[in-house]
Amino acid sequence: MKKIIYLFIALGMFSCKSEKTYDVGQIITPKGEILIWLHDETPNHKSSFKQLANDGYWENYTFNRVIPNFVAQGGCPDTPEGFTDPEYLLEPEFNDKLIHEYGAVGAGRDDNPKKLSARCQFYIVHNKEGLSRLDGDYTIFGKVIKGMDIVDAIINVERDSTNTPITDIKIDVNVIKMKASELEKVYPKSLQAE
């Protein structure tokens, strides 16, 4: 009888073991949800994205620049806050493996010689051939793992001569926890390094 009790206790402990979870970026828009895998290879940009999302920094911002076959840019517009305030600047974290492929998420910046990122601004690559000319100049810190159809819809909205959407595309940026089994369904490559 004791063996059976120990067996049930062991099975109970095994079944109670929690599944590993991962932090995933989430952008909710009027067009739908976009999920972003945040790369460990760019720890400062990943940490910054999580901090700004958790602080609700982007709650009054939009996708403010959309250019088909190029990028959808969101967060702070091209302002002194984003490009000159040291609080919003990050050293680049270039990585030869993280390139400007379709769905890559990068940090915006101005033409500063140190290639410092404006951590309050991000963009999603929309060119299916990639944008290799930007590699080594802008930090890629994530990849869309779900919702490129939403990015397509955002990119194709009516816009003015400055590529600003005529109707605001508000963003609600969060960091959510996803279980390994959930993540495996939308982005199996993310767990290959585990």
Description of the molecule:
The chain is an alpha+beta fold. The protein contains five helices and ten strands; from the N terminus they run H-E-E-H-E-E-H-E-E-E-E-E-H-E-H. The strands form two sheets. The protein has an eight-stranded antiparallel sheet. Strands 5-7 form a two-stranded antiparallel sheet. It is globular and about 55 Å long. The termini are far apart. The model has no long low-confidence stretch (mean pLDDT about 90).
What share of residues is helical? 10-25%
Secondary-structure element pattern, one letter each? HEEHEEHEEEEEHEH
Could you tell me the strand content as a percent range? Answer: 25-35%
Ranges with pLDDT <50 over ≥5 residues? none
Rg from Cα:
20 Å
Task: Describe how the helices and strands are arranged.
Layout: H1 2-16, E1 21-29, E2 32-38, H2 43-54, E3 62-67, E4 71-75, H3 80-84, E5 89-90, E6 104-107, E7 117-118, E8 121-125, E9 140-146, H4 148-155, E10 172-179, H5 180-186
Antiparallel strand pairs: 1-2, 1-10, 2-9, 3-4, 4-8, 5-7, 6-8, 6-9
Features:
194 residues; alpha+beta; globular; single chain; two-stranded antiparallel ribbon; 24% helix; eight-stranded antiparallel β-sheet
Summarize the structure.
The longest helix is centred in the first third of the chain and has 15 residues, at 2-16.
